[in-house]
Amino acid sequence: MIVIHAASLILIGALIALAWIDFRTYRLPDPVTLPLIAAGIALNTFALGTPWVSIVGAAAGYAAFVGIEVAFKRLRGIDGLGRGDAKLIAAGGAWCGGWLLPAMVLVGAVSALVFVGVVAAIRKRQPDELEAYAFGPWLALGIACGWIYRAYGPGLYPAF
Question: Considering the entire predicted model, what is its pTM?
Fold first, then answer.
């Protein structure tokens, strides 16, 4: 269990850093996101004995977000998601497995919508559809919730 606690500190620390960086710069730097993917795969392989959970989760998360990014760009002609978001959800999939990807994205999306609604209420105007908001902080929150559920929740280390 000490490995899980240490891993939790590493993941949560990195997610806090990524949330802050993305909130301020609209960037999720590769030197933080890519090692998180590798660490998630390593943890699942060597400590939890579930390497395929990690590999499938990382690949599915990345592929889904790149697909959304490309489709949105073609449909609207503007960027909606960045590739950093795809790498961040790949890290979430690597740590938590593919089965928690929908829940992590749901927590992130609902949190982001609440934030935008609060900002609109404070400004007393509707949000501009072209105004950019960082999604990384909210996605990081979803990943943290997913990890806490997986590591400490009732479904301790399920396969999928």
Answer: 0.93
